Structures
1.
Amino acid sequence: MMNPSLKNLCKVIPGTIIQGKWHHNRYTIIKELGFGANGIVYLARHNNTQVALKMSDNGMSITSEVNVLKSFAKVQGSALGPSLLDVDDWERPGKFVSFYVMEFIKGPDFLAFLQQKGSDWKEVMILQLLADLQVLHENGWVFGDLKPDNLIVTGPPARIRCIDVGGTTLQGRSIKEFTEFFDRGYWGLGSRKADPCYDLFAVGMIMVNTAYPKRFTKTTGGLNEIMGKVKQSPELKRYENVIANALTGKYQSARQMREEILQLRQPKADSRSSRYQQKTSTANQGPQTKTSTKKSHHTNTNIPPVNATALQQTRKGYNKKKKKSSALETLTIIIIISVLYFIYIYSQIT
């Protein structure tokens, strides 16, 4: 929870102009976007461009978050966090307030996106998230305060982006910020030490959150309570093993969890292939339908083999019949011509 005195110090109204003491850039506050333990984030305007501005009286916190964003910027092709635009101090009466300015990532949060587009997108977005987390972990960081509120979907094409890096922590240290529902320590399923499994636990709980948008309050805690909710949800049944493994720290990396989700698609493909082969086999067994009857002379493998000797004898018999028929026709023509000739001679004599 944010310190009340800190919030009062950083609280500004829309229209307020924030001018940096050192770089002299001016930012006009539009509205508040949110606040956390270490500061408040505002939507602001700078040179007709919308930006996100975070201010805090805790200079160390600002420095830490700026270092995280700088580290993200070094990762080629990464969508781990917003781009860093400016870092400065704002002078208020009797006090300096540190702030930094970053890219404003526009779009619905994770749960709002699924509500708009449908639950079919859940798997695609989770796979994207795990790919980004793999990059984050390989660079020595843990996101920490991972939850749907800190995941924005931009696009088209739809792309998940991580925002609010205030909880991002170097691996091996204690988690700086967390939200209870997504925190393994809250559920009694692990420590708050920053390691990749901490983030993967949160991914498992994000999947649970998609089926329970309003979340649920802990009663007994532990794995059984969470998995009991998973078993009650038809849409989570497919991911039951994946979620259980994420909650119990079975995955050693985000890549491993991602590959297991991808494998869930394979049985469906195999099943379709098996059904296709079965249908093909049945079709080749004989003329069961009109379609198969028409194609039977091309595909039917049940036609018995032809005896070559019998075929040769049949052809000889056919040729003999053909010769007899031809001779009979010739004899008939000769007789007709002869009769006509005798009639002609007789008529000449008489």
Note: The chain is about 45% helix and 15% strand.
2.
Amino acid sequence: MTTLALGPSWLDPDFLIQNFGLLGVMTIVFAESGLLIGFFLPGDSLLFTTGLLVVTDKLHHPLWLVCTLIVAAAIIGDQVGYLFGRKVGPALFRRPDSRLFKQENVEKAHEFFEKHGPKSLILARFVPIIRTFTPIIAGVSRMNYRSFITFNVIGGALWGAGVTLLGAALGQVDFVHQHIEMILVAIVLLSVIPIVIEYLRARRQSRKAEPTAPQEPGESQTASQRGRHAKR
């Protein structure tokens, strides 16, 4: 269906679905929702493509079943991430960087969680990378388990079923079929807009917080002397 791979060919949504089917989709959703190594996986574009392939009969499963299993995988993934965070705790913030782990991602998720509180579990679902680390941060922060379950279920349903149903709805539009590559790129770009906005906002705040250089005593004395001379 697509010729443009959003990264390596094995990360192309159509390639993944055609080769691994619904089980592969569930595995990727599970991994991206709560495993440290899942942050680079194509969540939004994968769900959109899944819904599109269902309505075009290229993925032979009922749409309700596909949505149910995807939501379940998303909820369970976050659950695993939360339990991992509770067990690992502060050690996560001391873990050194590697090819698949960047301390910067943990810090961004922590700032996101601190800013939005429990509702971050819903909002983070729609932000790549952040959605992988937020349930882990919730576990590290020892968020109330009942509250976590509530927001986890709501977020998993809105994201998992919502994006899949969007793909199914738009999959019946001819324009989408004719420009599927452009649509997938647009989805990826839209999903990273919150990250860009947050980055620019943090950069602006850090510039404002930079202390002004202290004035040299000689300079201060000279300025005061100039003031006295001006009054005379």
Note: Residues 9-231 form one domain.
